[in-house]
């Protein structure tokens, strides 16, 4: 449990050790604030680790979900690695104490400078998106006199039934490669054998997924191609199955997420049992989404003939998911109100009608000055925030054992 009500006040932590959200939010000078519960992140990491059991594995946290230094440092201390998608992320991961030997570099448009940075820092693996990129990696490795450990990203062509913007393993997506690329990739590997080493295959089919059958299908396809490479004399010793497990934004009940992690682990262990590989995973959302809240202050209540707007000092620039993906986050008054509920659209200060955080939600009457929290905003919240309209970024507070760090 990361957030709950006690005596009508929103708390962070557990009933045994909690901090008051209003006190935390008001302890800062002003403005919206993200609040994260580090202990919840740890619990989830441990659950995932346990689900993967005693197979040789490393969890590479997909830090695009939330790259707060304290969260990265926590993952480092737990033995996790990082899945990165830019030179900036590699740098942040290293600064937070995640060793290079546990850093993977994914991402679709790796520049020469980023590849050089990755190789100079001797990171664990570069996940390759195209033959052109593989050529580029070989050239950079040759120039540096080094050898790149690579994995080929397979596009297994499965439709994972999620928002179209976050499917990545369907044939229409820009990500990865299908089997037809394989001869070309093998030719490049052979002509640069001193500077490239193929360690395995990688896949990531999308985000916010619940159907384990789709994972099964994609992993099975990937394993079939893995075996083809092994048969061709490439001794692959890794298999990277990406991230993608979802959370149920519509409910505070997170128990199904823990059982899903367990079932996912059991399925994966069964699927790879005959392969002699290190299993690599790249979860993001499921580890951190539940651990975060975005708290904003009501500036105005604006009743119109159609509806009533609660206008906050935070909006799409701080939490883009509702505007971008039509995502629905639960709205939690920081102090539970009293009185007959009203219907509100919760909107922000940005000069666009896409600037909403929630629509048509029923809440006890709000007034200017009240604090309102958007639940489950720990993933793809601050990391997607911008300074659009020249607003400041929100502040961030990380709490552990009921104390801000
Ligand atoms: C390559 C890759 N790995 C892992 C992830 C993490 O996904 P999720 O947060 O859904 O677990 C992403 C998300 O976009 C990704 O692109």
Structural account:
There is one protein chain. By secondary structure, the protein is α/β, with parallel strands linked by helices. It folds into 2 domains: 3-37 and 290-404, Beta Barrel (Lyase, Ornithine Decarboxylase, Chain A, domain 1); 38-289, Alanine racemase (TIM Barrel, Alpha-Beta Barrel), CATH 3.20.20.10. Helices cover 29% and strands 25% of the residues. The protein has helices at residues 21-26, 38-52, 69-78, 87-95, 112-120, 131-144, 182-191, 212-231, 255-271, 285-288, 321-325, and strands at 3-6, 9-14, 17-20, 33-37, 57-62, 81-84, 103-105, 125-128, 148-153, 196-202, 238-240, 278-281, 292-303, 308-312, 331-333, 342-347, 356-363, 371-374, 395-400, 403-404. Strands 4, 13, 14, 15, 16, 17, 18, 19 and 20 form a 9-stranded mixed β-sheet that branches. The protein has an 8-stranded parallel barrel with strand order 5-6-7-8-9-10-11-12, surrounded by 6 helices. A 3-stranded antiparallel β-sheet has the order 1-2-3. Helix 5 crosses helix 6 and helix 6 (131-144) runs parallel beside helix 7.
